[in-house]
Automatic annotation (TrEMBL):
SUPFAM superfamilies (UniProt xref): Glutamine synthetase/guanido kinase (SSF55931), Guanido kinase N-terminal domain (SSF48034)
GO CC annotations on file: extracellular space
Gene3D superfamilies on file: ATP:guanido phosphotransferase, N-terminal domain, Glutamine synthetase/guanido kinase, catalytic domain
Species of the source: Cyprinus carpio carpio
Binding, ATP: 170-174, 233, 278, 334-338, 362-367
GO annotation, biological process: phosphocreatine biosynthetic process
Family per record: Belongs to the ATP:guanido phosphotransferase family.
Domain Phosphagen kinase N-terminal: 53-140
Family matches, as InterPro entries: ATP-guanido_PTrfase, ATP-guanido_PTrfase_AS, ATP-guanido_PTrfase_cat, ATP-guanido_PTrfase_N, ATP-guanido_PTrfase_N_sf, Gln_synth/guanido_kin_cat_dom
Any GO molecular function: ATP binding
Name of the protein in its database record: creatine kinase
EC number assigned by the record: 2.7.3.2
Annotated Pfam families: ATP-gua_Ptrans, ATP-gua_PtransN
């Protein structure tokens, strides 16, 4: 035990204390204490690598963030770094583990990335002095006292089964889920990752009916099979983004990674990518109602099976569903529609229209890809502070409105009358914006067009970016 005390462990360790190696540089100990003739046990975490760093001063260890443009660099002061650098979560995840991806990737002057990740469920609490202001900045002023709302009742979605098929090519809804009892992909070991895969296969293969399907491990796929699935938007590729690589997402690739999908290939689950699970409902055409129903029902079935195995999903009332990247906290939901907007996308106000509607655009190839033929992937920009139903409702109503704008431009007509509704101050709460939308103008302007913007109790937008790690 003298060796342990020399390493910095408390002097009250008893002779029955045991050391368990968790991840490199981290030891867990079952510590037995004698108190009032009774033996007590406690769990302690020791990150030896972090202790070694503490031999160096704050000035020697504080990262140079002078050329960085991400939320982490904006928030992380020397005081915060000094306060948190000696802390670690129960799995041994440290402050430097959180911020390394943002330190290694300064970003672009005009693109604000997040710059940090979580390593386990406890990261958001242990390092809250860092995460809370980042979450506030990234999620429109979301406060530490705010509570997230969850609504996975698909019947609460109004409309969505009538998006114009002449413009909408496909629809999808996806989210991520983290399984309680495991660390996140940024830090988990090979054995833990394989345990996540094994549990996921058992759970997913128990589904039946519309959700009956099969699991396909990446390591058993040929290059040709992988390329085809990626081209069809069914499969994820090996991470090549420096943001993901620096966060440890690609370790041991493709070990314990794979895809499960139902027989119709309309319901998919990615295993051990950026999150433990990435759940996707998708199909051709514009029936978002059907896609969202399948998403909600399938997600509930999966959660029920995991709970039977004593592994629920990470969730709390403040942050909603806990995921690896702070940008995905809350619902983790992205409701995307591939829609043709060749005229509107060249309009001078296109970017502003998207921002006012709380939507964002991508090329059909994903993040940072260009549009082909005027086709864009339009999705919700918000994740935290509003429910799944509210976020999908935004997509449905926003896409309907943009299609009407596209039709007017095709006829050579102006859309200034519609755009005038959107010229509110940038910090106007969404509830005020959409109430005005619905009650004062939209119903008369688009009398033949059903639009049902909901009341959205989400925080005002005080800062805006459309990027994620």
């Amino acid at each position: 035990m003298s060796v342990l005390r020399d390493a910095g462990f408390p002097s009250f360790l008893g002779p029955m204390s045991k050391i368990h190696l968790s991840r490199p540089g981290t030891m867990f100990m079952v510590v037995h204490l004698n108190h009032a003739d009774r033996r007590k046990s406690a769990i302690m975490t020791k990150n030896c690598n972090n202790d070694y760093k503490l031999k160096f001063s704050l000035e020697e260890e504080y990262p140079d963030l002078s050329q960085h443009n991400n939320h982490m660099a904006k928030v992380l002061t020397k005081d915060i770094y000094n306060k948190l650098r000696s802390k670690s979560t129960p799995s041994g995840f440290t402050l430097d583990d959180c911020i390394q991806t943002g330190v290694d990737n300064p970003g672009h002057p005009f693109i604000m990335t997040v710059g940090c990740v979580a390593g386990d469920e406890e990261s958001y609490e242990v390092f809250k002095e860092l995460f809370d202001p980042i979450i506030s900045d990234r999620h429109g002023g979301y406060k530490p006292t705010d509570k997230h709302t969850t609504d996975l009742n698909w019947e609460n979605l109004k409309g969505g089964d009538d998006l114009d098929p002449n413009y909408v090519m496909s629809t999808r809804v996806r989210t991520g889920r983290s399984i309680k009892g495991f660390t996140l992909p940024t830090t988990n070991s090979r054995g833990e990752r394989r345990a996540v895969e094994k549990l996921s296969i058992e759970a997913l293969n128990s589904l039946d009916g519309e959700f009956k399907g099969k699991y396909y491990p990446l390591k058993d796929m040929s290059d040709k099979e992988q390329e085809q699935l990626i081209a069809d938007h069914f499969l994820f590729d090996k991470p090549v983004s420096p943001l993901l690589l620096a966060a440890g997402m690609a370790r041991d690739w493709p070990d314990a990674r794979g895809i499960w999908h139902n027989d119709n290939k309309t319901f998919l689950v990615w295993v051990n990518e950026e999150d433990h699970l990435r759940v996707i409902s998708m199909q051709k055409g514009g029936n978002m109602k059907e896609v969202f129903k399948r998403f909600c029902v399938g997600l509930q079935k999966i959660e029920d099976v995991f709970k039977k195995h004593n592994h629920g999903f990470m969730w709390n009332e403040h942050l909603g569903f806990i995921l690896t990247c702070p940008s995905n906290l809350g619902t983790g939901l992205r409701g995307g529609v591939h829609v043709k907007l060749p005229k509107l996308s060249t309009h001078a106000k296109f970017e502003e229209i998207l921002t006012r509607l709380r939507l964002q655009k991508r090329g059909t190839g994903g993040v940072d890809t260009a549009s082909v033929g005027g086709v864009f992937d339009i999705s919700n920009a918000d994740r935290l502070g509003s429910s799944e139903v509210q976020q999908v409702q935004l997509v449905v109503d926003g896409v309907k409105l943009m299609i009407e704008m596209e039709k007017k431009l095709e006829k050579g007509e102006s859309i200034d009358d519609i755009h005038a509704i959107l010229t509110f101050p940038r910090d106007t709460p969404p509830c005020s914006l959409f109430s005005y939308f619905f009650f004062s103008f939209l119903s008369s302007l688009l009398s033949s067009f059903s639009c049902t913007f909901p009341y959205l109790p989400v925080p005002p937008v005080t800062s805006w970016d459309q990027t994620s790690t």
